[in-house]
Amino acid sequence: MNRLALPLLFALAGCTVGEVPPSATMPVSAVGPVTDPMRASVLSSAYVFGHPASTRPADRARGAAMVEFMAADYRWNPRWWEYSPTVGIQLDEARAELRRAYSVPPGAPPQVVVDAMVATGAALEARDEAAARGTLVARGFPAPDATLAALSVPRPLPAAARATSLAESELMRIETQNRFSGDGGSSGSHP
């Protein structure tokens, strides 16, 4: 990356030079035994927020973790450079919507949110609401009962639906473009 691009990248990420944008990783437990957590997050979250009535509370918790991860990853991972710049803007809007909907503590670092929602999803999957509540309390969520109540209701979250649908469309566009590039799909940074 050239020296002029780095300050521009930080400016787009809402940071100043010398300030590092927050990052996050997606735990394997949330995306399964895949080699590409970014791709799995795009596809899974697009389904969760595109079909809210067909999902369970555990799915919605993991979907929120995936959006949080993607919004942070967008600033770091050069694979996102092939995507429309609108994807990053919409992921930020989706993250803000989900943080409000699920009572995420203001200013919580992305990794804290990812870990909290993944662990909450696992507890809800196991039908252990006490463990889900304890996870949220331990991660500093101010209203764990409100978070669990919001996760239990399959409601539309339009910003999350738009962002994840756009990310999925861009993923499909890039994969199709790379597949038909004449080199078997290995010309882009996407696998």
Structure report:
This protein has one domain (33-179). It is built from nine helices and no strands. It is an all-alpha fold and 191 residues long.
C-alpha geometry: globular
Let me know the average pLDDT. Answer: 85
Distance between the termini: 21 Å
Give a count of the beta strands, DSSP E runs of length 2 or more. 0
Proportion of strand residues = under 5%
Computed over alpha carbons, the radius of gyration is 17 Å
Separate helix tally: 9
Helix and strand pattern: HHHHHHHHH
Number of domains: 1
Stretches with pLDDT under 50, minimum 5 residues: 1-18, 185-191
Please outline the helices and strands.
Layout: H1 5-12, H2 28-31, H3 37-50, H4 57-73, H5 85-101, H6 110-125, H7 129-138, H8 144-152, H9 158-179
Helix pairs in contact: 3-4, 3-9, 4-5, 4-6, 5-9, 6-7, 7-8
Short description:
The chain is an all-alpha fold and 191 residues long. It has helices at residues 5-12, 28-31, 37-50, 57-73, 85-101, 110-125, 129-138, 144-152, 158-179.
Characteristic terms for this protein:
mainly alpha
